[in-house]
Design brief:
- It is found in: Membrane.
- Keywords: Membrane, Signal, Transmembrane, Transmembrane helix.
- This is V-type proton ATPase subunit S1.
- Strand 13 and strand 14 form a beta hairpin.
- The protein is built from six helices and 20 strands.
- Strands 3-1-7-2-6-4-5 form a seven-stranded mixed beta sheet, with helices on both faces.
- The longest helix has 25 residues.
- It is 22% helix and 34% strand.
- The chain has 395 residues and is an alpha+beta fold.
C-alpha cells in the first residue's frame, strides 16, 4: 500500500513539473543545519542553486516535512482576511530563524530526488489526511494541501493551512529530535502575462472571390456534405460562364471539385434556382434572388441539398454574396457588386417584435387619453336661496 502511494505521488509530481517551468516562493524553518542566509528579492534561485541550499540545510539528517500547496505566490504572504489579520501568523513568528526564497525555479524537480524509499506522500483533503503517516524508515514527508472548500476565501484557506502546519510540526517535534519544515506551491497563484512589442502576423481567412465574365461571386466558405463525409472546397482557380439574356450557367473550378451555378432572369428579378455538383442538381428551400442590378447577400448559411434513394448531398455557402449581370463584363474595369438584397429582409424578427410592442403601447396610451377626455365635471351648483337643480337621466 505504501509503495503504491509512493509511485502514484511520484508520477503526479512528474506530470505537474513537466507541464510548466514556474517559479514559486519557498520557506524553510525549524532545525536547519546551515546559518540563515538573507533572501534576494530581485533574483531567482535556479534549480541547481536550490538543490545546493537543501543539501546544506538538511545535512544533519533531520526529519523533513514538505507542505506543497496547489498555488502560492509572494503576494499570499502579505494577504489579510476580512478582519485585517495575516493568513500566516505561525510562519511570521518563525521568520527570524527561517530561510525565505521568494522565487525558486522548478521546485518540484528538486523534490523528485528526495522521493525515494525513505519518503512518504500523503494528501490533506476535506476529510483529513488521505493515509496514516508511516514512522518507520521515513526521512521525508510530503503533504499535498488539497482541502479547498466551496465558498471559502483564499485568505481563510491559507489561514487553515497555517494552523495545520503549526499543529503538524509540533506533533513531529514530539516524535523526532530534529525537524525541518518546508512550505511551497506547485504553481504561482499570481501570474502576469508577458507582452511583446512584435505582433504576430495575422493569418489570412479562408474565402472565395472571383469575377468571371458576367458574374461576381464571393463566399467565406463552401462545405460539401455527403455519404463520403464532410469537406471544404479549396483552391478556387477560376471558371467559365455560358449565358444569354435570361439564362446563365457559371462553372466554378476548385482543386478538389467543381460547382455549376444555374441562374435565371425573369420579371425584373434574377434567381439562383439550383446548383449542380457531381452531376446532381441541388435546390434550396429559401429562394436566392434579387432585383436585376442588385446583388444577393446572406450572412447566414445558404443551403442547397437533394435527397435521393441512397444518400443526401448538401452544399453550404457561408457568407454568400453573388450577382449575375447577364451580359459581357470582360473588360479592364471589372464591375462592382450592386446594392445588396439581404436574405434577412427589411423586417427581421426583432424589428417586428419592437413594432408590435410599440403599437400596443400607443393603443393603450390612446385609449387612456380618450377615457380622460370623456370625464365630465360639474358645471352647475345648487343655490340655497333659489330653486333646486333637477338633473335628468340624460344629463
Amino acid at each position: 500500500m505504501a509503495f503504491s502511494r509512493l509511485v502514484l505521488s511520484f508520477a503526479l509530481l512528474c506530470v505537474a513539473s513537466s507541464l510548466a517551468s514556474v517559479s514559486v516562493p519557498v520557506m524553510l524553518w525549524g532545525d536547519l543545519a546551515g546559518p540563515s542566509m538573507k533572501s534576494n528579492p530581485l533574483g531567482e534561485v535556479s534549480q541547481s542553486e536550490f538543490e545546493d541550499i537543501l543539501n546544506n540545510e538538511l545535512k544533519d539528517d533531520q526529519f523533513t516535512v514538505v507542505f506543497i500547496d496547489e498555488s502560492l505566490s509572494v503576494e499570499d504572504f502579505s494577504r489579510k482576511n476580512s478582519e485585517g489579520k495575516t493568513s500566516f501568523p505561525y510562519l511570521k513568528s518563525n521568520i527570524a530563524e527561517a530561510l525565505y526564497l521568494p522565487a525558486v525555479d522548478n521546485v518540484l524537480e528538486v523534490f523528485h530526488k528526495y522521493s525515494d524509499s525513505n519518503a512518504d506522500h500523503v494528501t490533506l483533503t476535506e476529510n483529513g489526511l488521505s493515509a496514516e503517516i508511516e514512522k518507520e524508515n521515513v526521512k521525508y514527508l510530503f503533504i499535498n494541501l488539497r482541502d479547498a472548500r466551496e465558498g471559502e476565501s483564499r485568505a481563510d484557506m491559507l489561514l487553515r493551512h497555517n494552523d495545520f502546519m503549526e499543529a503538524m510540526v509540533s506533533k513531529l517535534q514530539e516524535q523526532y529530535d530534529k525537524v525541518a519544515a518546508i512550505y511551497t506551491g506547485e504553481f504561482p497563484s499570481w501570474t502576469i502575462p508577458e507582452s511583446h512589442l512584435r505582433t504576430r502576423r495575422a493569418t489570412p481567412g479562408l474565402f472565395y472571390s472571383t469575377a468571371l465574365n458576367g458574374l461576381r461571386f464571393y463566399a467565406k466558405d463552401i462545405i460539401i456534405t455527403s455519404k463520403a463525409g464532410e469537406f471544404n472546397l479549396t483552391g478556387l482557380s477560376g471558371g467559365t460562364t455560358n449565358f444569354n439574356e435570361t439564362i446563365m450557367q457559371a462553372t466554378l473550378n476548385f482543386s478538389n471539385g467543381s460547382l455549376i451555378l444555374n441562374f435565371e432572369s425573369k420579371s425584373g428579378y434574377w434567381f439562383l434556382d439550383s446548383i449542380t455538383y457531381n452531376g446532381e442538381e441541388l435546390t434550396t428551400n429559401s429562394e436566392v434572388y434579387a432585383i436585376l442590378g442588385f446583388s444577393y447577400r446572406c450572412g447566414q448559411n445558404a443551403v442547397f441539398s437533394k435527397l435521393n434513394d441512397t444518400e443526401q448531398t448538401t452544399v453550404i455557402f457561408r457568407d454568400l454574396k453573388v450577382q449575375p449581370f447577364f451580359k459581357e463584363t470582360n473588360s479592364s474595369d471589372t464591375p462592382q457588386f450592386g446594392d445588396s438584397f439581404n436574405c434577412v429582409g427589411f423586417f427581421s424578427v426583432p424589428i417586428w417584435s419592437g413594432l408590435f410592442v410599440t403599437f400596443v403601447m400607443l393603443a393603450i396610451t390612446f385609449y387612456g387619453i380618450m377615457m380622460m377626455l370623456d370625464i365630465r365635471t360639474m358645471d352647475r351648483f345648487d343655490d340655497p336661496k333659489g330653486k333646486t337643480i333637477t338633473i335628468n337621466a340624460v344629463e
